[in-house]
Amino acid sequence: MSKIPHVLSLALVYAIFCASSISGQDESWQLGPFVKQDAVNPIMGPLNYTTFFCPIRQEAVNWEKKDIFNPGAILKDGKVHILYRAEDDVGLYNGTSRIGLAISMDGVNFQRYPLPVFYPQNDSFAIHEWEGGCEDPRIVEFNSTYVMTYTGYDGDLARLMVATSTDLITWTKHGSVFAEAEGGQFVEMWSKSGSIVTRVSEKGKQEAVRLNGVFWMYWGETSIFAATSDDLVNWIPVTDPNGTENEFNLTAIFEPREGKFDSDIVEPGPPAILTERGIVFVYNSRNLDPLSGGDSNLPRGTYSAGQVLLNATNPIQVLSRLENYFFTPEKDYEVIGQVNNVVFLQGLVSFNGSWYLYYGTADSKIALAIIE
Ligand SMILES: *[C@@H]1O[C@H](CO)[C@@H](O)[C@H](O)[C@H]1NC(C)=O
Ligand SMILES: *[C@@H]1O[C@H](CO)[C@@H](O)[C@H](O)[C@H]1NC(C)=O
Ligand SMILES: *[C@@H]1O[C@H](CO)[C@@H](O)[C@H](O)[C@H]1NC(C)=O
Ligand SMILES: *[C@@H]1O[C@H](CO)[C@@H](O)[C@H](O)[C@H]1NC(C)=O
Ligand SMILES: *[C@@H]1O[C@H](CO)[C@@H](O)[C@H](O)[C@H]1NC(C)=O
Ligand SMILES: *[C@@H]1O[C@H](CO)[C@@H](O)[C@H](O)[C@H]1NC(C)=O
Ligand SMILES: *[C@@H]1O[C@H](CO)[C@@H](O)[C@H](O)[C@H]1NC(C)=O
Ligand SMILES: *[C@@H]1O[C@H](CO)[C@@H](O)[C@H](O)[C@H]1NC(C)=O
Predict the structure, then answer these.
(1) Please, are residues 143 and 155 in contact by the beta-carbon 8 Å criterion?
(2) Which atom of ligand 3 is nearest to the CA of 94?
(3) pLDDT confidence of 1, banded at 50, 70, 90?
(4) Ligand number nearest to the C-alpha of 35
(5) Whose CA is nearest to atom 6 of ligand 2?
(6) Of 202, 279, 314, 328, which is the most buried if we count CB atoms within 10 A?
(7) Residue whose CA is closest, atom 8 of ligand 3?
(8) Is the pLDDT score of 7 beyond 50?
(9) Which of 92, 37, 93, 94 is nearest to 65 (CA)?
(10) Residue 366 · residue 99 · CB < 8 Å
(11) Which Pfam families has this protein been placed in (predicted)?
């Protein structure tokens, strides 16, 4: 039998336990509480001895020497697979990003592949990926194919890109998720962080799910936007004539809030999850300066995480949003690093009768939290 009913009941018990927020709104739909695994965290950090022959530089680099962070995660063959962003320590941008793979039987101890599985090379996508690199992978499965959204960074513009694989090792790049939409006009727009809506299947796999006949994705950074797709590769942004993002008329699903932890930026976390209550969407967010519109209890620039519930029959409609963050930097390795005060949530796996959450810490390392 699937372990999921147990997971959901765990979440439900907790949810009922703290069903109302201070404001009195019903927050019982949220996932949690997530307990940071202090005994093992951070579970992964940079390595200074693994080398990779970069096909563009035509020389060897220590590809995960500077920092590793922002992991996507998925279950395959009963094992947790993490795809993580790794930065070398050379070049114009203080580190080109490539994507590494690590596998675990217990969700805690990971064995890494010695070489990155995804990286900029001499192909038609290098124009969008060099030399900032390939960043922030998020993974879902559908029909035995893995679909990875990631950010291609040319050093100037971030672009939301997509690739597919059947084994998580060999990948086919497809370029910008918006390459086909509206004559390609959205390709030249700043875009990143694609969270595809999934459900947990009877076998415990997290699979992309069609709602109203199409796949859905949340993406963005200034606001949360949405997009739909028939094939998980080509996506069409949701727009309307009164869209808030003037240049492209994008429909903002929700935006930063003044005075709160999410006052500056809102950015998707792991793949969103369809539940009986609606779509539970974990998002990352950045705080403004407390003196100019930020949360006064958090330093400027702090990345914390929130949760939103969206309507499964109208996925652009927000039904509920946590008043406060449920996850924020506290530990040394979350507070100090390449970028201070950052927890960045990207991987959420239904595993061992619970939810395992993998996240980047201070843009430097990777840590784990579990619903216990
Ligand atoms: C590599 O890292 C190890 C452990 O962190 C450290 O002791 C060693 O000095 C480093 N070597 C180089 C060449 O940076
Ligand atoms: C890749 O491109 C670089 C820069 O254009 C070039 O120096 C190198 O020879 C190319 N490598 C291959 C294998 O084509
Ligand atoms: C790279 O790091 C150096 C030293 O910390 C800094 O001065 C420079 O601005 C950084 N460059 C970029 C592009 O971030
Ligand atoms: C599953 O979780 C339990 C605690 O609920 C733990 O004792 C056990 O070691 C875990 N199993 C695996 C395979 O991680
Ligand atoms: C699943 O993949 C198979 C083989 O590629 C294909 O024939 C089939 O149409 C796919 N099914 C769906 C629902 O996409
Ligand atoms: C945005 O909406 C305005 C007003 O309806 C329209 O004139 C304009 O063409 C739209 N822009 C795009 C990029 O669709
Ligand atoms: C756009 O805004 C105008 C003015 O507020 C309103 O009359 C119109 O119904 C809106 N259109 C849509 C599609 O929301
Ligand atoms: C969800 O969306 C459907 C379709 O638009 C609507 O009928 C329903 O009232 C919405 N649910 C809530 C709780 O607003």
Answers:
(1) no
(2) 1
(3) very low
(4) 4
(5) 56
(6) 279
(7) 94
(8) no
(9) 94
(10) no
(11) Glyco_hydro_130
User: Residue 250 is encoded by which pair of tokens?
Assistant: 């994008």
Tell me: the pLDDT tens digits for 209-245? 999 999 999 999 999 999 999 999 999 999 988 766 6
- Ligand at minimal distance from the CA of 47 is 1
Residue 8 has pLDDT above 50, yes or no: no
User: What is the pTM for the complete model shown?
Assistant: 0.91
pLDDT digits (tens, 9 = 90+) for 131-167: 999 999 999 999 999 999 999 999 999 999 999 999 9
Ligand 7, atom 6: closest residue by C-alpha? 242
Q: What separation in Å is there between the alpha carbon of 243 and the centre of ligand 7?
A: 10
**pLDDT value at residue 22:** 53
Ligand 4 mutation target, pool 9, 352, 354, most atoms within 8 A of CB: 352
Type and span of the H or E element at 275: strand 273-275
Contact 237, 184 (CB under 8 A): no
- Indicate the pLDDT class of residue 11, thresholds 50, 70 and 90: very low
What is the SS3 assignment for 347?
strand
The tens digit of pLDDT for each residue in 27-62 reads 999 999 999 999 999 999 999 999 999 999 999 999
Q: What are phi and psi of 93, to 5 degrees?
A: -105, 20
Which residue, judged by its Cα, is nearest atom 14 of ligand 3? Answer: 93
Chain Cα centroid distance, residue 313: 23
For position 247, what pLDDT does the model report?
75
**Structural element, H or E, at residue 218:** strand 214-220
Q: Is the CB of 314 under 6 A from ligand 8?
A: yes
Tell how far the Cα of 265 is from the centroid of ligand 6, in angstroms: 25
Q: At 335, which helix (H) or strand (E)?
A: helix 332-335
Structural domains in the chain, CATH included, are 10-371 (2.115.10.20)
Residues with CB under 6 A from ligand 6: 241, 248-249
Residue type, 183: G
Between CA 26 and CA 191 the distance in angstroms is 32
The answer to whether 347 and 71 are in contact (CB under 8 A) is: yes
Task: Report residue 34 as tokens.
Answer: 């997530």
Distance from the alpha carbon of residue 137 to the mean position of ligand 1, in angstroms? 27
Nearest ligand, CA of residue 94? 3
